[in-house]
Amino acid sequence: MKNRGLFRAKNFYEVKKMHMIYGVKDRPKIPQLLLFALQQLLAILAATITVPMVINSNYPNVNMSPSAALFGAGVGTLVYLLFTKFRSPVFLGSSFAFLGSMLAAFAGGVSVSLGYLGLIIGAAFAGIVYVIIAVIVRFAGVKWIDKIMPAVVIGPTVAIIGLSLAGNAVGQAVSGVNNGGYVMDVNASLCLVCALVTLATTIVCSVYGKKLMKMIPFIIGILAGYVVAAIFTGFSYIDGAEAMRIIDFTKFTKMQWYPDFAFLQPILHPEISAGEAGSVGAYIGTIAVAYIPVSFVVFAEHIADHKNISTIIESDLLADPGLSRTLLGDGVGSVAGAIFGGCPNTTYGESVGCVAISGNASVITILVTALMAIVAAFIAPFVTFLSTIPDCVMGGVCIALYGFIAVSGLKMVQAVDLNDNKNLFVVSVILIAGVGGMSLKFGPVVITEVACALILGILTNLLVNIKKRGAKEEQITIEEAVAEEKKSAEANSATEEEI
Protein backbone atom coordinates (compact mmCIF):
# COMPACT_ATOMS: atom_id res chain seq x y z
CA MET A 1 0.00 0.00 0.00
CA LYS A 2 2.84 2.37 0.76
CA ASN A 3 4.16 2.18 -2.82
CA ARG A 4 0.82 2.78 -4.49
CA GLY A 5 1.33 6.54 -4.47
CA LEU A 6 4.36 6.06 -6.70
CA PHE A 7 2.17 4.88 -9.55
CA ARG A 8 -0.21 7.80 -9.08
CA ALA A 9 2.56 10.37 -9.48
CA LYS A 10 1.59 13.08 -11.92
CA ASN A 11 5.10 13.55 -13.27
CA PHE A 12 8.39 11.71 -13.24
CA TYR A 13 10.05 14.18 -10.87
CA GLU A 14 8.17 12.50 -8.02
CA VAL A 15 10.18 9.32 -8.50
CA LYS A 16 12.94 8.74 -5.97
CA LYS A 17 16.07 10.45 -7.27
CA MET A 18 19.74 9.58 -7.14
CA HIS A 19 21.76 11.05 -4.29
CA MET A 20 24.23 13.68 -5.45
CA ILE A 21 27.49 14.00 -3.53
CA TYR A 22 28.04 17.41 -5.13
CA GLY A 23 25.03 19.48 -6.16
CA VAL A 24 24.78 21.86 -9.10
CA LYS A 25 26.10 24.86 -7.13
CA ASP A 26 28.72 22.97 -5.10
CA ARG A 27 32.45 23.50 -5.66
CA PRO A 28 34.75 20.53 -5.07
CA LYS A 29 38.29 21.19 -3.89
CA ILE A 30 40.73 21.95 -6.70
CA PRO A 31 42.51 18.54 -6.76
CA GLN A 32 39.17 16.73 -6.86
CA LEU A 33 37.78 19.22 -9.36
CA LEU A 34 40.59 18.53 -11.82
CA LEU A 35 40.08 14.79 -11.51
CA PHE A 36 36.32 15.13 -12.01
CA ALA A 37 36.89 17.30 -15.08
CA LEU A 38 39.37 14.80 -16.53
CA GLN A 39 36.81 12.06 -15.97
CA GLN A 40 34.17 14.04 -17.87
CA LEU A 41 36.68 14.70 -20.65
CA LEU A 42 37.48 11.01 -20.97
CA ALA A 43 33.78 10.17 -21.04
CA ILE A 44 33.03 12.48 -23.99
CA LEU A 45 36.33 12.25 -25.81
CA ALA A 46 35.81 9.21 -28.03
CA ALA A 47 32.51 10.35 -29.48
CA THR A 48 33.64 13.97 -29.91
CA ILE A 49 36.68 13.15 -32.03
CA THR A 50 34.97 10.28 -33.89
CA VAL A 51 32.67 12.58 -35.90
CA PRO A 52 35.47 14.35 -37.84
CA MET A 53 37.26 11.01 -38.27
CA VAL A 54 34.14 9.57 -39.94
CA ILE A 55 34.05 12.52 -42.35
CA ASN A 56 37.74 12.04 -43.16
CA SER A 57 37.22 8.34 -43.86
CA ASN A 58 34.50 9.18 -46.41
CA TYR A 59 36.45 11.94 -48.14
CA PRO A 60 40.22 11.29 -48.39
CA ASN A 61 40.91 14.86 -49.58
CA VAL A 62 39.23 16.27 -46.46
CA ASN A 63 41.24 16.56 -43.26
CA MET A 64 38.93 17.64 -40.45
CA SER A 65 40.87 18.05 -37.24
CA PRO A 66 39.81 15.96 -34.19
CA SER A 67 41.63 18.42 -31.92
CA ALA A 68 39.64 21.27 -33.50
CA ALA A 69 36.44 19.33 -32.77
CA LEU A 70 37.57 19.00 -29.15
CA PHE A 71 38.25 22.76 -29.05
CA GLY A 72 34.82 23.44 -30.58
CA ALA A 73 33.14 21.22 -27.98
CA GLY A 74 34.82 23.19 -25.19
CA VAL A 75 33.80 26.55 -26.68
CA GLY A 76 30.25 25.34 -27.34
CA THR A 77 29.93 24.16 -23.74
CA LEU A 78 31.13 27.54 -22.44
CA VAL A 79 28.46 29.24 -24.57
CA TYR A 80 25.83 26.84 -23.23
CA LEU A 81 26.85 27.52 -19.62
CA LEU A 82 26.66 31.28 -20.17
CA PHE A 83 23.15 31.07 -21.63
CA THR A 84 21.95 28.79 -18.83
CA LYS A 85 23.50 31.00 -16.12
CA PHE A 86 25.69 28.09 -14.95
CA ARG A 87 22.67 26.17 -13.64
CA SER A 88 22.77 23.14 -15.95
CA PRO A 89 25.60 20.56 -15.68
CA VAL A 90 25.56 19.56 -19.36
CA PHE A 91 28.50 19.13 -21.72
CA LEU A 92 28.12 19.66 -25.47
CA GLY A 93 30.06 17.51 -27.92
CA SER A 94 30.10 16.69 -31.63
CA SER A 95 26.66 15.56 -32.78
CA PHE A 96 26.31 12.25 -34.64
CA ALA A 97 22.81 13.29 -35.74
CA PHE A 98 24.34 15.78 -38.20
CA LEU A 99 26.78 13.30 -39.75
CA GLY A 100 24.64 12.90 -42.87
CA SER A 101 24.27 16.67 -43.13
CA MET A 102 28.02 17.17 -42.83
CA LEU A 103 28.68 14.57 -45.49
CA ALA A 104 26.22 16.42 -47.74
CA ALA A 105 28.25 19.61 -47.23
CA PHE A 106 31.26 17.98 -48.87
CA ALA A 107 29.28 15.86 -51.34
CA GLY A 108 27.46 18.91 -52.68
CA GLY A 109 30.40 21.28 -52.28
CA VAL A 110 32.18 22.44 -55.39
CA SER A 111 35.47 22.49 -53.48
CA VAL A 112 36.85 21.34 -50.16
CA SER A 113 37.08 24.98 -49.11
CA LEU A 114 33.40 25.55 -49.84
CA GLY A 115 32.64 22.30 -48.02
CA TYR A 116 34.12 23.72 -44.81
CA LEU A 117 32.13 26.89 -45.34
CA GLY A 118 29.06 24.69 -45.82
CA LEU A 119 29.64 23.17 -42.38
CA ILE A 120 29.48 26.60 -40.79
CA ILE A 121 26.47 27.71 -42.86
CA GLY A 122 24.65 24.48 -41.99
CA ALA A 123 25.33 24.94 -38.29
CA ALA A 124 23.98 28.47 -38.58
CA PHE A 125 20.75 27.10 -40.10
CA ALA A 126 20.47 24.65 -37.21
CA GLY A 127 21.13 27.42 -34.69
CA ILE A 128 18.38 29.57 -36.21
CA VAL A 129 15.91 26.71 -35.74
CA TYR A 130 16.85 26.49 -32.07
CA VAL A 131 16.52 30.25 -31.62
CA ILE A 132 13.05 30.28 -33.21
CA ILE A 133 11.86 27.41 -31.00
CA ALA A 134 13.38 29.12 -27.96
CA VAL A 135 11.44 32.32 -28.72
CA ILE A 136 8.22 30.31 -29.07
CA VAL A 137 8.90 28.58 -25.76
CA ARG A 138 9.71 31.90 -24.12
CA PHE A 139 6.23 33.25 -24.89
CA ALA A 140 4.18 30.02 -24.94
CA GLY A 141 5.77 28.34 -21.93
CA VAL A 142 6.57 24.62 -21.57
CA LYS A 143 3.18 23.24 -20.54
CA TRP A 144 2.44 22.22 -24.13
CA ILE A 145 5.62 20.13 -24.09
CA ASP A 146 4.50 18.36 -20.92
CA LYS A 147 1.20 17.56 -22.64
CA ILE A 148 2.66 16.06 -25.80
CA MET A 149 5.68 14.53 -24.09
CA PRO A 150 4.66 13.39 -20.60
CA ALA A 151 6.56 10.81 -18.54
CA VAL A 152 4.93 7.93 -20.42
CA VAL A 153 6.60 9.23 -23.62
CA ILE A 154 9.87 10.67 -22.31
CA GLY A 155 10.72 7.77 -19.98
CA PRO A 156 10.95 4.99 -22.58
CA THR A 157 12.50 7.43 -25.08
CA VAL A 158 15.37 8.13 -22.70
CA ALA A 159 15.72 4.39 -22.20
CA ILE A 160 15.96 4.01 -25.99
CA ILE A 161 18.76 6.58 -26.11
CA GLY A 162 20.82 4.25 -23.93
CA LEU A 163 19.66 1.03 -25.56
CA SER A 164 20.28 2.35 -29.08
CA LEU A 165 23.92 2.84 -28.12
CA ALA A 166 24.25 -0.67 -26.67
CA GLY A 167 25.48 -2.09 -29.97
CA ASN A 168 28.20 0.57 -30.12
CA ALA A 169 29.42 -0.27 -26.62
CA VAL A 170 29.50 -4.03 -27.23
CA GLY A 171 31.03 -3.52 -30.67
CA GLN A 172 33.83 -1.46 -29.15
CA ALA A 173 34.38 -4.01 -26.41
CA VAL A 174 35.11 -6.81 -28.88
CA SER A 175 36.68 -4.70 -31.62
CA GLY A 176 39.85 -6.38 -32.80
CA VAL A 177 42.66 -4.15 -34.04
CA ASN A 178 43.46 -4.35 -37.74
CA ASN A 179 46.98 -5.78 -37.93
CA GLY A 180 48.42 -6.14 -41.40
CA GLY A 181 45.07 -5.92 -43.15
CA TYR A 182 43.07 -8.42 -41.13
CA VAL A 183 41.51 -8.71 -37.70
CA MET A 184 42.61 -11.68 -35.64
CA ASP A 185 40.23 -13.64 -33.41
CA VAL A 186 42.89 -13.72 -30.70
CA ASN A 187 43.10 -9.95 -30.81
CA ALA A 188 39.33 -9.60 -30.44
CA SER A 189 39.38 -11.96 -27.45
CA LEU A 190 42.11 -9.93 -25.76
CA CYS A 191 40.15 -6.75 -26.46
CA LEU A 192 37.18 -8.28 -24.66
CA VAL A 193 39.45 -9.04 -21.69
CA CYS A 194 40.55 -5.38 -21.58
CA ALA A 195 36.92 -4.25 -21.78
CA LEU A 196 35.86 -6.53 -18.94
CA VAL A 197 38.79 -5.43 -16.77
CA THR A 198 37.77 -1.80 -17.39
CA LEU A 199 34.12 -2.50 -16.60
CA ALA A 200 34.89 -4.57 -13.48
CA THR A 201 37.29 -1.96 -12.13
CA THR A 202 34.74 0.81 -12.72
CA ILE A 203 32.02 -1.17 -10.94
CA VAL A 204 34.21 -2.08 -7.97
CA CYS A 205 35.40 1.50 -7.51
CA SER A 206 31.86 2.89 -7.77
CA VAL A 207 30.27 0.34 -5.43
CA TYR A 208 33.02 -0.42 -2.90
CA GLY A 209 35.31 2.58 -3.27
CA LYS A 210 35.80 5.12 -0.52
CA LYS A 211 35.57 8.89 -0.92
CA LEU A 212 37.50 10.02 -4.02
CA MET A 213 37.79 6.55 -5.54
CA LYS A 214 34.01 6.27 -5.53
CA MET A 215 33.66 9.53 -7.46
CA ILE A 216 36.23 8.88 -10.21
CA PRO A 217 35.51 5.25 -11.17
CA PHE A 218 35.88 5.96 -14.91
CA ILE A 219 39.42 7.30 -14.64
CA ILE A 220 40.53 4.32 -12.57
CA GLY A 221 38.69 1.88 -14.83
CA ILE A 222 40.18 3.36 -18.01
CA LEU A 223 43.68 3.34 -16.52
CA ALA A 224 43.30 -0.30 -15.48
CA GLY A 225 42.11 -1.29 -18.94
CA TYR A 226 44.88 0.73 -20.59
CA VAL A 227 47.57 -0.96 -18.46
CA VAL A 228 46.29 -4.42 -19.41
CA ALA A 229 46.13 -3.40 -23.09
CA ALA A 230 49.68 -2.01 -22.86
CA ILE A 231 50.94 -5.30 -21.40
CA PHE A 232 49.35 -7.27 -24.24
CA THR A 233 50.78 -4.78 -26.76
CA GLY A 234 54.25 -5.17 -25.23
CA PHE A 235 54.16 -8.92 -25.90
CA SER A 236 52.98 -8.26 -29.46
CA TYR A 237 56.48 -7.18 -30.51
CA ILE A 238 57.68 -10.77 -30.08
CA ASP A 239 57.78 -12.59 -33.41
CA GLY A 240 54.53 -14.46 -34.01
CA ALA A 241 52.61 -12.58 -31.31
CA GLU A 242 51.39 -9.65 -33.45
CA ALA A 243 47.78 -10.56 -32.64
CA MET A 244 48.32 -9.21 -29.11
CA ARG A 245 48.83 -5.65 -30.35
CA ILE A 246 45.93 -3.57 -29.07
CA ILE A 247 47.35 -0.05 -28.68
CA ASP A 248 48.62 1.80 -31.73
CA PHE A 249 51.65 3.67 -30.37
CA THR A 250 52.64 4.76 -33.88
CA LYS A 251 50.17 7.64 -33.49
CA PHE A 252 52.86 9.47 -31.55
CA THR A 253 54.94 9.66 -34.73
CA LYS A 254 52.08 11.39 -36.57
CA MET A 255 51.03 13.95 -33.99
CA GLN A 256 49.08 17.01 -35.14
CA TRP A 257 50.67 19.86 -33.21
CA TYR A 258 47.88 22.38 -33.60
CA PRO A 259 44.16 22.21 -34.49
CA ASP A 260 43.07 23.13 -38.02
CA PHE A 261 40.07 25.33 -37.31
CA ALA A 262 37.19 25.01 -39.79
CA PHE A 263 36.69 28.76 -40.27
CA LEU A 264 40.31 29.15 -41.42
CA GLN A 265 39.97 26.72 -44.34
CA PRO A 266 37.87 29.00 -46.61
CA ILE A 267 40.23 31.88 -45.75
CA LEU A 268 43.42 29.94 -46.44
CA HIS A 269 42.02 28.24 -49.54
CA PRO A 270 39.57 30.67 -51.17
CA GLU A 271 40.02 29.27 -54.68
CA ILE A 272 36.56 29.01 -56.31
CA SER A 273 36.31 29.36 -60.07
CA ALA A 274 33.68 31.47 -61.82
CA GLY A 275 31.87 28.36 -63.00
CA GLU A 276 31.76 26.97 -59.49
CA ALA A 277 30.54 30.28 -58.05
CA GLY A 278 27.37 30.03 -60.10
CA SER A 279 26.33 26.90 -58.24
CA VAL A 280 26.90 28.35 -54.77
CA GLY A 281 23.24 29.38 -54.40
CA ALA A 282 21.99 25.88 -55.16
CA TYR A 283 24.62 24.48 -52.80
CA ILE A 284 23.42 26.65 -49.91
CA GLY A 285 19.89 25.42 -50.59
CA THR A 286 21.15 21.85 -50.36
CA ILE A 287 22.81 22.64 -47.04
CA ALA A 288 19.58 24.13 -45.66
CA VAL A 289 17.59 21.01 -46.63
CA ALA A 290 20.28 18.80 -45.05
CA TYR A 291 20.52 20.63 -41.72
CA ILE A 292 17.13 22.16 -40.85
CA PRO A 293 15.03 18.95 -40.60
CA VAL A 294 17.70 17.29 -38.46
CA SER A 295 17.54 20.27 -36.09
CA PHE A 296 13.97 19.38 -35.15
CA VAL A 297 15.05 15.80 -34.47
CA VAL A 298 17.87 16.98 -32.20
CA PHE A 299 15.40 19.34 -30.48
CA ALA A 300 13.37 16.31 -29.36
CA GLU A 301 16.51 14.62 -28.08
CA HIS A 302 17.47 17.89 -26.34
CA ILE A 303 14.26 17.73 -24.30
CA ALA A 304 14.73 14.04 -23.50
CA ASP A 305 18.31 14.58 -22.31
CA HIS A 306 17.38 17.55 -20.13
CA LYS A 307 14.43 15.76 -18.57
CA ASN A 308 16.72 12.81 -17.95
CA ILE A 309 19.39 14.80 -16.13
CA SER A 310 16.64 16.69 -14.29
CA THR A 311 15.65 13.45 -12.58
CA ILE A 312 19.27 12.83 -11.63
CA ILE A 313 20.09 16.24 -10.14
CA GLU A 314 16.67 16.73 -8.50
CA SER A 315 15.97 19.98 -10.36
CA ASP A 316 13.70 20.61 -13.34
CA LEU A 317 16.00 22.25 -15.88
CA LEU A 318 13.06 23.02 -18.16
CA ALA A 319 11.81 25.38 -15.44
CA ASP A 320 15.15 26.66 -14.11
CA PRO A 321 17.09 27.93 -16.02
CA GLY A 322 14.24 27.23 -18.47
CA LEU A 323 13.89 25.44 -21.80
CA SER A 324 14.28 28.68 -23.77
CA ARG A 325 17.73 29.21 -22.22
CA THR A 326 18.88 25.61 -22.70
CA LEU A 327 17.77 25.76 -26.34
CA LEU A 328 19.59 29.04 -26.94
CA GLY A 329 22.69 27.65 -25.25
CA ASP A 330 22.55 24.45 -27.31
CA GLY A 331 21.81 26.26 -30.58
CA VAL A 332 24.39 29.05 -30.27
CA GLY A 333 26.86 26.56 -28.77
CA SER A 334 26.42 24.36 -31.84
CA VAL A 335 27.23 27.26 -34.15
CA ALA A 336 30.30 28.15 -32.06
CA GLY A 337 31.47 24.55 -32.12
CA ALA A 338 31.06 24.33 -35.89
CA ILE A 339 32.97 27.56 -36.49
CA PHE A 340 36.04 26.06 -34.85
CA GLY A 341 35.64 22.30 -35.30
CA GLY A 342 33.13 22.03 -38.13
CA CYS A 343 30.84 19.82 -36.04
CA PRO A 344 27.51 21.06 -34.60
CA ASN A 345 27.31 20.21 -30.91
CA THR A 346 24.65 18.47 -28.87
CA THR A 347 24.10 17.33 -25.29
CA TYR A 348 26.01 14.15 -24.47
CA GLY A 349 24.50 11.09 -22.85
CA GLU A 350 27.99 10.01 -21.78
CA SER A 351 28.27 13.19 -19.72
CA VAL A 352 24.84 12.60 -18.16
CA GLY A 353 25.84 9.04 -17.28
CA CYS A 354 29.06 10.31 -15.75
CA VAL A 355 27.09 12.70 -13.53
CA ALA A 356 24.77 9.89 -12.45
CA ILE A 357 27.47 7.35 -11.59
CA SER A 358 29.92 9.74 -9.93
CA GLY A 359 27.24 11.64 -8.01
CA ASN A 360 28.85 14.92 -9.06
CA ALA A 361 26.46 17.45 -10.62
CA SER A 362 28.71 20.47 -10.02
CA VAL A 363 28.48 22.93 -12.92
CA ILE A 364 32.00 24.10 -12.05
CA THR A 365 33.18 20.63 -13.07
CA ILE A 366 31.60 21.09 -16.50
CA LEU A 367 33.21 24.53 -16.77
CA VAL A 368 36.66 23.14 -15.99
CA THR A 369 36.06 20.26 -18.42
CA ALA A 370 35.30 22.76 -21.19
CA LEU A 371 38.44 24.75 -20.40
CA MET A 372 40.44 21.53 -20.24
CA ALA A 373 39.15 20.51 -23.68
CA ILE A 374 40.17 23.89 -25.12
CA VAL A 375 43.68 23.71 -23.64
CA ALA A 376 44.10 20.02 -24.53
CA ALA A 377 43.42 20.79 -28.20
CA PHE A 378 46.83 22.53 -28.30
CA ILE A 379 48.75 19.86 -26.38
CA ALA A 380 49.55 17.35 -29.10
CA PRO A 381 51.08 14.62 -26.86
CA PHE A 382 48.07 14.72 -24.54
CA VAL A 383 45.53 14.57 -27.37
CA THR A 384 47.53 11.79 -29.01
CA PHE A 385 47.69 9.84 -25.76
CA LEU A 386 43.93 10.13 -25.39
CA SER A 387 43.49 8.94 -28.98
CA THR A 388 45.56 5.83 -28.21
CA ILE A 389 43.04 4.66 -25.61
CA PRO A 390 41.77 1.50 -27.33
CA ASP A 391 38.14 1.21 -28.41
CA CYS A 392 37.80 -1.89 -26.25
CA VAL A 393 38.72 0.06 -23.10
CA MET A 394 36.20 2.79 -23.92
CA GLY A 395 33.68 0.04 -24.74
CA GLY A 396 34.00 -1.31 -21.20
CA VAL A 397 33.24 2.15 -19.80
CA CYS A 398 30.39 2.76 -22.24
CA ILE A 399 28.62 -0.43 -21.20
CA ALA A 400 28.12 1.21 -17.81
CA LEU A 401 27.49 4.73 -19.16
CA TYR A 402 24.86 3.73 -21.72
CA GLY A 403 23.28 1.33 -19.26
CA PHE A 404 22.80 4.13 -16.76
CA ILE A 405 21.07 6.23 -19.42
CA ALA A 406 18.67 3.36 -20.16
CA VAL A 407 17.98 2.71 -16.48
CA SER A 408 17.34 6.40 -15.75
CA GLY A 409 14.66 6.33 -18.46
CA LEU A 410 13.08 3.25 -16.94
CA LYS A 411 13.04 5.01 -13.56
CA MET A 412 10.80 7.66 -15.12
CA VAL A 413 8.36 4.96 -16.19
CA GLN A 414 7.92 4.02 -12.54
CA ALA A 415 5.63 7.03 -12.27
CA VAL A 416 3.35 5.55 -14.93
CA ASP A 417 0.51 3.09 -14.31
CA LEU A 418 1.25 0.34 -16.83
CA ASN A 419 -1.95 -1.45 -15.88
CA ASP A 420 -3.67 1.18 -18.02
CA ASN A 421 -3.67 0.01 -21.65
CA LYS A 422 -3.28 3.58 -22.87
CA ASN A 423 0.09 3.86 -21.17
CA LEU A 424 1.02 0.29 -22.06
CA PHE A 425 0.55 0.96 -25.79
CA VAL A 426 2.62 4.14 -25.70
CA VAL A 427 5.56 2.52 -23.89
CA SER A 428 5.36 -0.61 -26.06
CA VAL A 429 5.45 1.31 -29.33
CA ILE A 430 8.42 3.41 -28.25
CA LEU A 431 10.46 0.47 -26.98
CA ILE A 432 9.87 -1.75 -29.99
CA ALA A 433 10.43 1.01 -32.56
CA GLY A 434 13.62 2.09 -30.80
CA VAL A 435 15.08 -1.32 -30.04
CA GLY A 436 14.08 -2.52 -33.50
CA GLY A 437 16.14 0.29 -35.03
CA MET A 438 13.37 2.00 -36.99
CA SER A 439 14.85 4.93 -38.92
CA LEU A 440 13.96 6.90 -42.03
CA LYS A 441 16.21 8.47 -44.64
CA PHE A 442 15.26 11.23 -47.04
CA GLY A 443 18.33 12.05 -49.09
CA PRO A 444 20.94 13.40 -46.69
CA VAL A 445 18.39 13.71 -43.89
CA VAL A 446 18.30 10.78 -41.48
CA ILE A 447 15.62 10.46 -38.79
CA THR A 448 17.30 8.30 -36.18
CA GLU A 449 15.70 5.41 -34.31
CA VAL A 450 15.44 7.59 -31.18
CA ALA A 451 13.61 10.33 -33.10
CA CYS A 452 11.33 7.80 -34.84
CA ALA A 453 10.50 6.15 -31.53
CA LEU A 454 9.75 9.53 -29.94
CA ILE A 455 7.55 10.65 -32.84
CA LEU A 456 5.59 7.39 -32.81
CA GLY A 457 5.25 7.64 -29.04
CA ILE A 458 3.86 11.18 -29.27
CA LEU A 459 1.37 10.16 -31.98
CA THR A 460 0.31 7.05 -30.05
CA ASN A 461 -0.15 9.07 -26.86
CA LEU A 462 -2.35 11.56 -28.73
CA LEU A 463 -4.31 8.69 -30.32
CA VAL A 464 -5.12 6.90 -27.07
CA ASN A 465 -6.15 10.13 -25.37
CA ILE A 466 -8.69 11.30 -27.94
CA LYS A 467 -11.99 11.75 -26.08
CA LYS A 468 -15.23 13.57 -26.56
CA ARG A 469 -16.15 15.97 -23.84
CA GLY A 470 -19.00 13.85 -22.57
CA ALA A 471 -16.91 10.71 -22.59
CA LYS A 472 -14.16 12.49 -20.73
CA GLU A 473 -16.46 13.61 -17.97
CA GLU A 474 -17.90 10.09 -17.74
CA GLN A 475 -14.44 8.63 -17.52
CA ILE A 476 -13.50 11.01 -14.71
CA THR A 477 -16.60 10.02 -12.83
CA ILE A 478 -15.77 6.33 -13.22
CA GLU A 479 -12.20 6.91 -12.04
CA GLU A 480 -13.44 8.83 -9.03
CA ALA A 481 -15.83 6.03 -8.20
CA VAL A 482 -13.08 3.42 -8.48
CA ALA A 483 -10.79 5.57 -6.35
CA GLU A 484 -13.44 5.89 -3.69
CA GLU A 485 -13.99 2.12 -3.77
CA LYS A 486 -10.28 1.47 -3.35
CA LYS A 487 -10.10 4.01 -0.57
CA SER A 488 -13.00 2.32 1.20
CA ALA A 489 -11.41 -1.10 0.76
CA GLU A 490 -8.12 0.15 2.21
CA ALA A 491 -9.94 1.65 5.19
CA ASN A 492 -11.79 -1.61 5.81
CA SER A 493 -8.53 -3.55 5.53
CA ALA A 494 -6.82 -1.24 8.03
CA THR A 495 -9.75 -1.61 10.43
CA GLU A 496 -9.59 -5.39 10.22
CA GLU A 497 -5.83 -5.33 10.93
CA GLU A 498 -6.39 -3.17 14.00
CA ILE A 499 -9.05 -5.56 15.26
At a glance:
With 499 residues, this protein is mainly α. The strands form 3 sheets. It has a two-stranded antiparallel ribbon with strand order 1-4. A two-stranded antiparallel sheet has the order 2-3.
Based on the model shown, name its key terms.
two-stranded antiparallel sheet; 499 residues; two-stranded antiparallel ribbon; disordered N terminus; 21 helices
What would you say this structure looks like, in words?
The protein is mainly alpha-helical. The chain is about 70% helix and about 5% strand. The strands form 3 sheets. Strands 1-4 form a two-stranded antiparallel ribbon. The longest helix has about 35 residues, at about 280-315. The protein is globular. Residues about 1-15, about 180-185, about 275-280 and about 470-485 have low confidence and may be disordered.
The portion of residues forming beta strands comes to under 5%
- Which segments are poorly predicted (pLDDT under 50) over 5 or more consecutive residues? 1-17, 178-184, 273-278, 468-486
What does the average pLDDT come to?
78
Structural class by secondary-structure content? mainly alpha
List the helices and strands and how they pair.
Layout: H1 30-58, H2 66-83, E1 92-94, H3 99-107, H4 112-140, H5 143-148, H6 151-164, H7 166-173, E2 178-179, E3 182-183, H8 185-208, H9 212-215, H10 217-235, H11 264-268, H12 274-277, H13 280-313, H14 318-341, E4 345-347, H15 349-358, H16 363-376, H17 380-387, H18 391-413, H19 421-435, E5 440-442, E6 445-447, H20 449-464, H21 469-498
Antiparallel strand pairs: 1-4, 2-3, 5-6
